[in-house]
C-alpha cells in the first residue's frame, strides 16, 4: 500500500463516483477502479458497496476513510514540519551561557530570535565560563558561549566579539576624572581579580597586566562573577577590569573608563560540537553574529 492508494480511495469516498474521482485525479476511470480493487484485495475487505453505477461506503470503508484522512493529514504535516526544520524555523536549541552574557548580549539576542523563530524552543543552561566547553563535550548543551578555546579543540566556533577592557571604578575616586586609565595608575589601589577556577582567562589577563606594571592584584578579593566585583567597586573597595560590553550595566557609584593598555582583549565565541548541526542551531549562530556586530560599545559619559 502506498500513499497514492489512500488518496485514490479518499477521492472516490468523497465523490462516490468513479468517473468524477478519475477526473479530479487526472486519470482514466478503469485504472482507478483497478487500483481500488487492488487496495481492497490487499486489505481483505470490501471498502465500497457497488450496486450498478451507484457506489457507497461499506462499514469497513467508513472506518478506513476516517483513518486514511488522519494518515494523510499527519503525512502532510510531517512534510511541512520537516521542511520548516530544514530552514531552521522549528526545533530546539540548548544554549549554555555564563554570567555577564545574561545582561549584555543575551537579552537582545533572545528577544530577536523569539520574534523571528517563535516555534524554536531555546533552553538556557547556566555554567561558569570555565565549564562551558565541558558542558558541550558532555552533551548538556548544543551550543555554548565561551571566552577561550583550547588550541587543540575539535569544536566548531565563531568569534562574536573582541572587546577591549574597561576599568570599573568608583565615581567618587579621583582617578575616575581621567578619560582613560592605565593599569599603572591602579598600582596603589586594590585591583579586584576573578577566581581562577571560574574565569581563568580573566584571572590570567589581570595578573599579566599587573605584572607588567610591577605589582600584583589583590588575592583577598577574587570574585566569581563580574556583578560581585562591581558591587565591591561601588562600595569603594577597589577597581576591576570588565569587557567593554559590561559598561552598559548600571550600578550606583560605578563608572567605566577605557584601559590604556589596548593590547588586552576579551574574546567571546559561540561554540558547538556537531559537524553538521541542525538548521535551528545555525539560525541562532547567524543571528548572534548579527546582534554582536551591532552591539553598542561606547560607554555613557558620567
Automatic annotation (TrEMBL):
Domain HTH lysR-type: 1-58
Coiled coil region boundaries: none
Alphabetized UniProt keyword annotations: DNA-binding, Transcription, Transcription regulation
Keyword Lipid biosynthesis in record: no
CDD domains: PBP2_LTTR_aromatics_like (cd08414)
Alphabetized GO MF terms: DNA binding; DNA-binding transcription factor activity
Gene3D superfamilies reported for this sequence: Periplasmic binding protein-like II, Winged helix-like DNA-binding domain superfamily/Winged helix DNA-binding domain
Domain of life: Bacteria
Cellular component terms per the entry's GO annotation: protein-DNA complex
Family: Belongs to the LysR transcriptional regulatory family.
Name under which the protein is recorded: LysR family transcriptional regulator
Lineage of producing organism: Bacteria, Pseudomonadati, Pseudomonadota, Betaproteobacteria, Burkholderiales
